[in-house]
Design brief:
With 253 residues, this protein is an alpha/beta fold. It folds into two domains: 135 residues, Periplasmic binding protein-like II (D-Maltodextrin-Binding Protein, domain 2, 3-Layer(aba) Sandwich); 96 residues, Periplasmic binding protein-like II (D-Maltodextrin-Binding Protein, domain 2), CATH 3.40.190. It contains ten helices and ten strands. A five-stranded mixed beta sheet has the order 2-1-3-10-4. Strands 7-6-8-5-9 form a five-stranded mixed beta sheet, with helices on both faces. It is globular and about 50 Å long.
Length: 253
């Protein structure tokens, strides 16, 4: 799968202008799609070359980097994957920073459900009717498991889960009415009008973070400036407009 992703990225780059005539290449977590696209638009409006952006789940993004994808900036959806990249000497640790944070919600689509929606206490009656990113490898799924364990629901809910490769796929299953409930990021739920949401709190001290960094192989002149833009006041305002929050220790939205 990762070779296919690399091939797709290679085709994307081959169809663009020469490197000196195109913006930096950014590999980013799919849950940041709308916000990073908006940031790229704002960056271009300032007179810069627009970044070339490729979105995927954080695990896929990290593997693309490991396998040598020609990129400049990487953004993932939790510290664990960025720690792994740093441990493999694939990022410049001095450039690493957390550019945004997020929260989790239950989500359902009452307009397009294929069977009646159960109460949480009845989910065992509805096998495989809760969509969430794979809790074994995907950040949104790992956070989801922590939140469900914190709520005392994990053992009850685990047999009902339909695991997906990323949080956007889980959201799509809910949107199409193929499952009753989903666990997704609050920002993802905002992208589909009409969904009903309910907060799913994480334990105190656990935070959904989006670390970003330059790749060690980055040579594009604008890479560092674009990364700095993402954590600038203007970049922060874009993330806040798209429903993200700021990491602990930074001024809130």
């Amino acid at each position: 799968m990762f070779r296919a992703l690399l091939a797709s990225l290679g085709l994307l780059l081959s169809g663009c202008a020469p490197a000196e005539e195109s913006g930096p290449v950014v590999l980013a977590a799919s849950s940041m799609t709308e916000a990073i696209e908006a940031a790229a638009d704002a960056w271009e409006a300032q007179g810069h070359l627009r970044p070339i952006i490729s979105f995927a789940g954080s695990a896929a993004v990290a593997r693309q980097v490991e396998q040598g994808a020609p990129a400049d900036v990487v953004i993932v959806a939790d510290a664990e994957w960025m720690d792994w990249l740093e441990g493999e000497s694939l990022i410049d640790p001095l450039t690493r920073r957390d550019i945004a944070s997020n929260s989790l919600v239950w989500v359902r689509n009452e307009m397009h459900v294929v069977v009646p929606r159960p109460a949480l206490g009845e989910v065992s009656l509805y096998p495989r009717q809760i969509a969430m990113a794979d809790p074994e490898s995907v950040p949104a799924g790992r956070y989801g498991r922590v939140a469900l364990e914190h709520a005392g629901l994990w053992e009850q809910v685990a047999p009902m889960i339909v695991p997906t490769e990323n949080v956007r796929q889980a959201l799509a299953l809910v949107e199409r009415g193929e499952v009753l409930l989903g666990v997704v990021y609050a920002t993802d739920a905002r992208t589909v009008p009409g969904l009903v949401t309910e907060p799913l709190p994480l334990p105190e001290g656990v935070e959904v973070l989006y670390p970003a960094a330059l790749l060690t192989g980055s040579a594009h002149a604008d890479s560092r400036d674009f990364l700095n833009f993402l954590s600038s006041p203007e970049g922060t305002a874009i993330f806040c407009e798209h429903g993200f929050t700021m990491p602990e220790g930074r001024a809130p939205c």
